[in-house]
């Protein structure tokens, strides 16, 4: 087995031990996976240290979350700018096949929700997509209505978390 193969095998084993620890700190599946991937870019020596030191791991996870939040903020501002040029209407939605309608709404909703609550953005977007499309369009149009619905969803998630 070459040194590269050995290093990759070690990285795989470290990743398998690291992910459960990261997911305890960041329960949102997409974020835990992304953060673990980001951490696995570090060299194996530093990764082994993170496995031994919860404090160091927490610091690196916080650093990764800050990077992700900065990326989402930049992405959200871009999407919101694009959206303000071309607001989604019921007529536009009706022109799209039903199986694509939720996807289009979700793509517009997620960045807005992530600005309000990054930690649960994926779960909350999924919860919201269970709502009728006309109500979802209203969520996209009204920041106040969206914030109220996100707060409701956070309360539900927090209740079921404990």
Set down the secondary structure blueprint.
Elements: H1 3-25, H2 29-39, H3 44-52, H4 54-85, H5 90-94, H6 98-116, H7 121-128, H8 133-141, H9 143-161
CATH superfamily of the largest domain: c-terminal domain of poly(a) binding protein
Q: Could you report the average pLDDT, rounded to the nearest whole number?
A: 83
Q: Order of SSEs, N→C?
A: HHHHHHHHH
Global Rg: 19 Å
Q: Assign an overall shape.
A: elongated
Quickly give the CATH architecture of the largest domain.
Orthogonal Bundle
How many distinct helices? 9
Task: Give the helix proportion (percent range).
Answer: over 70%
CATH topology of the largest domain: c-terminal domain of poly(a) binding protein
The largest pleated sheet is described as: none
- Top CATH class of the largest domain: Mainly Alpha
Distance between the termini: 46 Å
Number of strands: 0
Strand content: under 5%
What's the number of structural domains? 2
List low-confidence stretches: 78-85
């Amino acid at each position: 087995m070459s040194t590269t193969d050995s290093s990759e095998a070690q990285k795989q084993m470290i990743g398998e031990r690291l992910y459960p620890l990261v997911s305890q700190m960041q329960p949102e599946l997409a974020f835990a996976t992304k953060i673990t991937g980001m951490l696995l870019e570090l060299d194996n020596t530093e990764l082994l240290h993170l496995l031994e030191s919860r404090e160091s791991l927490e610091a690196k996870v916080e650093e990764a979350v800050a990077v992700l939040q900065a990326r989402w903020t930049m992405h959200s501002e871009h999407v919101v700018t694009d959206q303000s040029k071309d607001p989604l209407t019921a007529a536009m939605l009706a022109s799209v096949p039903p199986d694509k309608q939720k996807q289009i709404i979700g793509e517009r909703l997620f960045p807005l929700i992530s600005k309000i609550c990054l930690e649960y953005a994926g779960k909350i977007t999924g919860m919201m997509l269970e709502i009728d499309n006309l109500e979802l369009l209203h969520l996209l149009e009204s920041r106040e209505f969206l914030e109220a619905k996100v707060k409701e969803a956070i309360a539900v998630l927090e209740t079921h978390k404990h």
